[in-house]
Structure of Phosphonate metabolism protein PhnP:
Amino acid sequence: MQITFTGTGGAGGVPRYGCECVACIRARLQTQYQRRPCSALIETDQVRLLLDAGLMDIHERFPAGSLDAIILTHFHADHVQGLFHLRWGKGAQLPVLCPPDPDGCADLYKNSGILDFCQLEPFKPFEVGDLTLTPLPLNHSKVTHGYAIETSTGQRFAYLTDTVGLPEATTRFLQSWGAFSMALDCSHRPQARPPANHNDFNLALEIINQVSPSQAWFTHLSHEVDCWRLEEGFRLHDNLAWASDDLIIKI
Amino acid sequence: MQITFTGTGGAGGVPRYGCECVACIRARLQTQYQRRPCSALIETDQVRLLLDAGLMDIHERFPAGSLDAIILTHFHADHVQGLFHLRWGKGAQLPVLCPPDPDGCADLYKNSGILDFCQLEPFKPFEVGDLTLTPLPLNHSKVTHGYAIETSTGQRFAYLTDTVGLPEATTRFLQSWGAFSMALDCSHRPQARPPANHNDFNLALEIINQVSPSQAWFTHLSHEVDCWRLEEGFRLHDNLAWASDDLIIKI
Ligand SMILES: [Mn+2]
Ligand SMILES: [Mn+2]
Ligand SMILES: [Mn+2]
Ligand SMILES: [Mn+2]
Ligand SMILES: [Zn+2]
Ligand SMILES: [Zn+2]
């Protein structure tokens, strides 16, 4: 399976509007450092799935018929805001597989247009083409799912954002899943007290120690994290990496 | 005052996602026919105001400090969706003057970031730089204001969308306002029964007959309206015009 990091930014992205920090200035000058709303495109020979819909130009990037489904981690605006425009399309319904959030976001459920929302059950695997996905509950201020994604030939990739730590049941699932790669929320630089809603770098490393992925990419990154990396010149272990927008990996 | 129609489309815009009608095909081939979310930039020597925030690239079009305020007609997503990203900016608060809608849209009130929401009272004039604006109630499925905008030298412009017909008090205000130009909701081609939430062409003409603007531009236009215009080759009276994206007028 091929994974494209279509966005690796937290809410507000990089550059952050009006911010003059070194990371934001760099991102304005060199677009390869920009971080759009956190999302990923998953492709195999048989399917094309978009994980999260915060990109505000979804309707331009993905012409009608080019996606088999959109899969949502949760209904915070930075993960669904591209749907507000897309929903008014014409033609075939587009499946939007989502966590069982009774509220959704604004009037998306009420005026769903071409979007066919379908709520998923945690830990209950489902198939899309040649992929099997299992929703994994995460710890966040809204009902949130990560996804364990497996190809028919046993390649495995976990997508885990937005979260602060992991629920025990999700940790156990990953510990018994077999070899896998993953993308993980790392919204904050190391903090004295871990934040309420997202991993800081320390907590992200702790999760990695617990579930032992063969490789991991940090995503949902903020300008703070980029500033910290520029200050510290920190070097990650060989099996860890910072994701960046448009990075393509093959699992 | 200078007015730029930064967007002249209804919800879904033109081209509409996945639509193969003649207006949508034309808009894909020739970008001057595209219609972005309905909005307008109002400029004088002293102020720069954005009317509605449905453009999804507000944060790129208007760098921090370049707008004095955003003024909202209402909290439907196609009029506020650009705020979801913009709010996470750094630095000075940005005034967002809005109708007294208790709900706003999604979590905009709760997580307002740099946005300083300020609810306006209908018919109570307020000043921004050398402009005086008066909120005018409209008929729509959410609390909605049009705005009567006047310069210190007596140039007048009314911005009236989204609406189906006009409330009587708004009609009376405009009838006694003196000479003015206006932009008016014309979301639908002529319909047998006028639609519930927006003007069709017939109702738009009726409003124009009632309030007698010196000039009027139709906006909040749909692909249906553009198709109808292409089919009919209809010619408007000299004081009426179809707005188009990036059209600049001086009042
Ligand atoms: Mn997020
Ligand atoms: Mn979130
Ligand atoms: Mn509208
Ligand atoms: Mn509306
Ligand atoms: Zn910054
Ligand atoms: Zn069309």
